[in-house]
Design brief:
Largest sheet: 2 strands, antiparallel
Mean pLDDT: 93
Order of helices and strands: HHHHEHHHEHEHHHEHHEHHEEEHHHHHHH
Distance between the termini: 46 Å
Structural class: mainly alpha
Radius of gyration: 22 Å
Strand content: under 5%
């Protein structure tokens, strides 16, 4: 069903993306053309589909996903590891073009491909009762989009962003992250409460197919995630909003927010992580592996997911993208690649310095069942939500037992791999056995909860979320790499610097925002909620 809706709207949503942007100066002419859509005939459902798709990656192949989610976040967080020379993340090197990719430029990136269409939906549907549910879902999706932007960069254009057509402001101010989070919490709460199951049908929704009850649970789960970001900087607000959503969040893996991709759309609608890791743009298929950190953790705890997500000998030649059908999924032979290694002539940095090195195919690759062009992008899941509820219970004694929520979250993560492939199913009894061997303890509760959150988000390949939650909690304890010439004095980066082209495009606002960054506009600076 999701796929059918997705295919139905793909062609038109791309037209909307290119020609319906809110800052386009001839927007009015385009949308009042008698043979085109106009104010009386335009259906905002199409643009909603666009915004949902582009949140999962740029229409320009994997522009932001490749650079932001994979090159930087996945390796900084020691989920993945690679010796590919331009993967700067786990070497803590600054490539300004890569750290700026998620923000984007004049053609691609979040502000062009995500913010513009979702702002158009919100503005177009405002005050129109016939589009009430579309409007409320768009408000929630807009909050999701801006939450990631501000988590990556800190203060960003928010209140005036994407408003060029409506306000003629083409150089938007940077709002403080504190102000952004205050508004995000308000928007998600109001929009979720305003959803009406008896109201208008949301036909362009490729996440839940217009299921309003699922959207309510998504909204409340997102509200919880936003609230928990604030535990270090504003614990009172965090607890207040966490309390509000108790009993209203996702109830099972069936509530997971997932976008299933479509292989028929060439590079436009395929899964972006898979495109990169299958080697569409280079040699990533052969040289990107699971990190030693994550493989060792799964082996040491006998995690049943290990035999599903990792394989050795998937590729036997660095030149061929043909997968070896005799790959080895035996958990006992899985071996993670250490982070911070390359193929250089520096002995200590070359991957051959790993005492366990034998050959590249012997390191564990993500399972081919996870890397499909029509595979899922996980956006927010029941497993993550239950782990956040476990933390809220542990911190504030609200919402029931921390151990119960922890068990629910871990079990959901173990049994929730089926969207990747039916062969990745793990029985509930197997998850129960794992939990007996790795029982929750209140004394180490926060560490256990957030280590599982790190593990779950890595397996979902949402490395943006892995990085944000690690910065928020400090768990798991990751040992920084030592790499010559790094840009952080050997510490794990805390934020992405602003794009340098902002100095020319939005100079005064950019300079004020840069000067306000805690620790400076660099990889070691900190966003507002990342209090030391």
């Amino acid at each position: 069903m999701r796929t059918n809706i997705f295919k139905q709207y793909t062609a038109l949503m791309l037209i909307v993306l290119f020609f319906g942007a809110s800052c386009t100066k001839d927007f009015k002419d385009i949308n009042t053309n008698p043979v085109a859509y106009g104010p009386s005939s335009f259906d905002p459902n199409y643009t909603l589909t666009t915004a949902q798709l582009t949140y999962t990656g740029s229409i320009d192949f994997s522009y932001d996903t490749w650079r932001g989610n994979l090159i930087y976040c996945s390796t900084m967080m020691q989920g993945l590891s690679t010796v590919v020379s331009y993967w700067a993340g786990d070497k803590y090197m600054l490539n300004e073009g890569y750290t700026a990719a998620y923000w984007g430029n004049a053609a691609v990136g979040a502000y062009i491909e995500q913010v513009r269409p979702i702002v158009d939906v919100v503005e177009f549907t405002k005050g129109q009762q016939k589009y009430n549910n579309v409007h409320q879902i768009a408000r929630i999706w807009k909050a999701l989009i801006f939450a990631r932007l501000t988590d990556l960069y800190g203060d960003v254009p928010y209140s005036q962003a994407g408003q060029g057509y409506y306000t003629s402001i083409f150089n938007p101010k940077y709002d403080s992250q504190q102000a952004i989070y205050t508004d995000l919490l308000k928007e998600v709460e109001e929009a979720t409460n305003a959803l009406n199951s008896s109201g208008d049908k949301v036909s362009g929704d490729v996440i839940y197919k217009g299921d309003i009850e699922k959207w309510k649970r998504f909204g409340n789960s997102l509200l919880l995630r936003l609230a928990m970001r604030l535990v270090k900087i504003d614990e009172t607000t965090a607890k207040n909003y966490a309390t509000k959503v108790i009993g209203k969040t996702m109830t099972s893996n069936a509530d997971d927010a997932i976008l299933m991709h479509d292989e028929s759309g060439a590079r436009v609608t395929q899964n972006r992580n898979s495109q990169v890791l299958l080697g569409d743009g280079g040699q990533e298929h052969f040289y990107v592996k699971w990190s030693k950190t994550i493989i060792d953790l799964m082996k040491n705890t006998a995690d049943p997911r290990l035999g599903k997500v990792a394989v050795t000998k998937l590729y036997l030649s660095d030149g061929s993208k043909t997968q070896n059908t005799s790959f080895d999924a035996n958990p006992l032979v899985q071996k993670g690649m250490p982070n911070g290694k390359d193929l250089s002539a520096v002995p200590s940095q070359n991957v051959s310095s790993d005492p366990f090195y034998t050959s590249m195919p012997d390191y564990s690759s993500p399972s081919p069942n996870m890397l499909k062009r029509n595979g899922p992008t996980f956006i927010l899941t029941y497993a993550q939500t239950e782990l956040l509820l476990a933390e809220a219970a542990q911190r504030w004694n609200i919402g029931g037992s921390a151990a119960t929520h922890f068990n629910n979250g871990v079990k959901a993560g173990i049994t929730g791999l089926v969207p990747y492939d039916a062969s990745m199913a793990i029985a509930a009894g197997t998850a129960d056995t794992y939990l007996l061997a790795n029982a929750y303890s209140s004394g180490t509760g926060l560490q256990q909860i957030n280590t599982q959150y790190w593990l779950q988000s890595n397996i979902q390949m949402d490395f943006y979320e892995t990085w944000s939650n690690w910065r928020r909690t400090g768990f798991p304890t990751l040992i920084p790499v030592v790499f010559a010439g790094n840009a952080t004095n050997g510490t794990i980066p805390r934020r992405f610097p602003y794009p340098v082209e902002e100095a020319a495009k939005n100079g005064a606002n950019y300079r004020a925002a840069s000067a306000a960054v805690i620790g400076g506009d660099r990889l070691t600076g900190r966003v507002w909620w990342d209090k030391q």
